[in-house]
């Protein structure tokens, strides 16, 4: 029988916490056709919200996750035209890697990275919440999954330009960037929405390093927000950053959007 507390919790976490979907659509309002990547899609919340905001636009969505339950969670999305799902991990190599799957708090911490798994404070506090809400107090398990780089995926599928790339991979940001280096250097993505996660004591260095990575490749961070829920009862921090290609910022299409970086 479905647990109503679990459903309420997922709704609060996924639908009431502000994100950047509206800003993204405002930036791209003059584009008639969109190609959107949802990396770490889980239950497809980002894709669902974007779909609701789209009006009279052609689109193609590419969703990625390595949680074996995701295909079931997004079954209704996959019935729609031009939505494609790939059960593969986006990383810095093409091959195999070990995936840490969180049995007790599925929506968070499941990743190729062991960052969340190794934070005892986070694990202990979330297990307590999980036990109260879900009656599940299991741990992490590890199993092998297929991996591919963004550079390889775009080349293999003959994708020349991506309008939006949302990335939520709980600590594996460096590996994503290494595998997308050529794509980013060649400005093949207009907008990248990236969650950055790290340990509190080294988080500022990680964030600065990633922002500099984008800056050197002619991308500008135009918005940022903190994920306070990640920091609560843990040694972790997380922020979500919206990076836009300078080439697109200088385009007529962006100027015609009249996007206000301060108020949007």
Task: Provide key terms for this protein.
single chain; 36% helix; Rossmann fold; three-stranded mixed β-sheet; alpha/beta; 264 residues; 12 helices; globular; seven-stranded mixed β-sheet
Structure explained in plain terms:
This protein has 264 residues and is an alpha/beta fold. The protein has one domain: Vaccinia Virus protein VP39 (Rossmann fold). Helix content is 36%, strand content 27%. A seven-stranded mixed sheet has the order 3-2-1-7-8-10-9. The protein has a three-stranded mixed sheet with strand order 4-6-5. Strand 1, helix 3 and strand 2 form a beta-alpha-beta unit. The radius of gyration is 18 Å and the shape is globular. The model has no long low-confidence stretch (mean pLDDT 90).
Show the helix and strand layout:
Blueprint: H1 4-15, H2 21-27, E1 33-39, H3 45-53, E2 58-64, H4 70-73, E3 83-86, E4 89-90, E5 95-102, H5 120-134, E6 140-148, H6 150-156, E7 162-167, H7 173-179, H8 181-185, E8 189-199, H9 203-216, E9 219-226, H10 228-231, E10 236-245, H11 246-249, H12 252-257
Parallel strand pairs: 1-2, 1-7, 2-3, 4-6, 7-8
Antiparallel strand pairs: 5-6, 8-10, 9-10
Provide a short characterization of the protein structure:
The chain is of the alpha/beta class and 264 residues long. The protein contains twelve helices and ten strands. The termini are far apart.
β-strand percent reads 25-35%
Largest sheet: 7 strands, mixed
**Fourth CATH level, the homologous superfamily:** Vaccinia Virus protein VP39
- Structural Rg: 18 Å
CATH class: Alpha Beta
Q: Please count the helical segments.
A: 12
- Which fold does the CATH topology refer to? Rossmann fold
- Termini distance? 42 Å
Number of domains: 1
Give the helix level as a range of percent: 25-40%
On the 0 to 100 scale, the average pLDDT is 90
How many beta-strand elements? 10
């Amino acid at each position: 029988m479905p647990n109503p507390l679990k459903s309420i919790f997922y709704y609060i976490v996924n639908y009431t916490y502000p994100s950047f979907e509206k800003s993204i659509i405002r930036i791209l309002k003059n584009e008639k056709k969109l190609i959107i990547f949802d990396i770490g899609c889980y239950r497809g919340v980002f894709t669902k919200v974007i779909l609701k905001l789209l009006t009279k636009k052609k689109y193609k969505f590419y969703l990625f996750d390595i949680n074996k339950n995701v295909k079931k969670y997004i079954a209704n999305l996959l019935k729609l035209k031009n939505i494609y799902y790939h059960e593969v991990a986006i990383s810095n190599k093409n091959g195999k890697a070990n995936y840490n799957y969180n049995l007790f708090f599925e929506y968070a911490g499941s990743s190729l990275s062991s960052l969340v798994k190794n934070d005892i404070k986070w694990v202990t506090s979330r297990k307590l919440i999980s036990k109260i809400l879900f009656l599940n107090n299991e741990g992490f398990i590890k199993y092998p999954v297929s991996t591919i780089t963004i550079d390889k995926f775009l080349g293999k599928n003959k994708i020349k330009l991506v309008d939006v790339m949302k990335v939520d991979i709980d600590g594996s940001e460096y590996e994503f960037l290494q595998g997308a280096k050529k794509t980013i250097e060649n400005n093949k993505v207009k907008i990248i929405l990236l969650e950055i996660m790290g340990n509190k004591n080294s988080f500022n260095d990680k964030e600065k390093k990633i922002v500099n990575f984008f800056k050197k490749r002619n991308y500008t961070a135009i918005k940022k927000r903190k994920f306070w829920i990640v920091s609560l009862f843990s040694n972790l921090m997380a922020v979500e950053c919206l990076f836009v290609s300078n080439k697109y910022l200088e385009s007529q299409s962006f100027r015609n959007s009249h996007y206000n970086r301060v108020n949007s």
